[in-house]
Write a structure and sequence with these properties.
heterodimer; A: mainly alpha; ABC transporter involved in vitamin B12 uptake, BtuC; 15 helices; 71% helix; 3% strand; B: alpha/beta; Rossmann fold; 6-stranded mixed beta sheet; 4-stranded antiparallel beta sheet; 8 helices; 27% strand
Chain lengths: 373, 256
Amino acid sequence: MAVSAASDKSKRQPLVNARFVEFLTKSWSYLFLLGLVVFFSLTGTGFFSVRNFSSILTTSTLIMLMSIGQTYVVITAGIDLSIGWTVGLSSVTTARVMRDLAAGGADVEYAMLAGVFAGLLVALIPGLVNGLLVARVKVPPFIATLGMFGIVRGAAFLLTDGQQVVRGLSAELREALRGIGNGSLLYHIPDHGLVWFRQPPDLEPTQIRQVSQLLPYPVLITALVVIVFAFILARTKFGRHTYVIGGSEEAARRSGINVDRHLIIIYVICGFTAGIAGVLHLFRFTAGAPQAGEAALLSSVAAVVIGGTNLFGGEGDIMGAVVGSLIIAVLQTGLVILNIDSIWQFIVVGVVIIIAVLVNQLQSALERLQSNV
Amino acid sequence: MSEAILTATGVSKHFGGLTAVDNVDFAVYPGEVVALLGDNGAGKSTLIKCISGVYRPESGRVIFNGSDITHQPPADIRSRGIETIYQDLALAENLDVGANVFLGKEVTRRLFGLLPVTDDSYMRQEASGVLDELDIHIPSLTQKLVNLSGGQRQAVAIARAMYWNAQLVIMDEPTAALGVPEQRKVLALIRSLREGNIPVILISHTMHDVMAVADRMVIMRRGRVVANIARAEASEEIIVRHIVGSAENGENAVMI
């Protein structure tokens, strides 16, 4: 006896062209990004330039790094509200360790390495606690990470003695930080052509203004993190189990997946990518700041949602978060170039988030419609 | 009749002062569909959970394929071939058929001889093979389960049990949430399991399902087995009388 539920259905014409709808719902954010770039390129002077694009990419790294970990968490139907302050904690910790080691007579390179290590390590702690609370104590992610939001914020400010920045970084240290944070693997300089690693020191001020960073280090580092975590999520068993947990935690448990351990690792990953963001923030601005990631937290969630990741879990990918982060960065820069008050950026991003959720709902509604025709 | 594949003898389970399962003997023979019937609270689900290892019975023994599985953890019992399909099916509906058949047991291959990645095309292929065996047709193997019908999802859960060499399938109310055409498909699946010589324990409230597929009906009431009736000797009326308890004076009970 044939058990073919679908054969009698699929012969009917679907109401909407399924492929077209799928294409549109899956790639609207890519098209939207492209549209924004075209729009700003046509309307804003100086938008369409290598220099500006490289600046947009650099700007986007903070939100992008945070949204990578956030994507994992959101796919398991969670959310991590604490990573904004984890960025700050990591930035401050890195700055203090570097400063104190350098002040104690250590080599700048050694102080920097130790600082980066400390900054990344400290970011794992809130992640671990979040994971334990969510997986073992069954605290809802929103509450657990909201608590951690306050704790990490306090910890970050304790490390600066309540100041807005970590004071006392030596000039030598700041110079070394800037070399990476504002440096590029490859420069394009008019009259010099392509230059690797370092900007020549003897440039005229007019030339300096025309230097284009073709491969800024923060962008390269972020790209590497994107590739690694996109690969893990899309291709490995670990990634698959992340989706299974997001689809049905019960199914995951019954199929023998160690859900608790998996969730803990995911919150640690989320802390880790925020930690990278914090360290990079310090390298770029050469000041350890507790509030480094404060404003970026909601943007990172926005980037995840705009990228098509479902807040109810089970769906989404890293490339979506990357595109979402780029959309936000392009809006930030583009509105400034058009001389529109940057406050409008909040409104536009807000509208885009709502569109993203609507498109997501439209997609599920159409899928349901098609399978129930 | 050949040797029983599963034998439970003298199984009892209490919850506080309540005796949920009271000294029950229960057996399943190769290739038969046994319906487990009874009113709410009769002890069907508790008995099943004593077999699948979710509960630990206080007394009695459960023997499966010649070995004692009483008090074994659920995962061990599952790996011995007793697969329980609950009403919620335990599927990840956001993933495709291949991913679901291999849930938690994903097959990987080495990318560039180095990085272990999930071998999705292999898993899809294997899933498609077992679906074919069950005579189930799913339009696209890359479809997420959320886009499939209830009956098709039930089929995927059964296919998964089959693929991992289930030797006894326990189904809890498999047709409860389905429309009539879908119910028929699930019943057809139960028959194909039987044709594959895999016995099925079917918990159901739906008399129609039971009459349609069961070879034998075991009826529970207040924690005890009150009747054990072969299909040939069963009628809806007899079954209902046992379920509600009006047959207990004996005139209509056909015990084997």
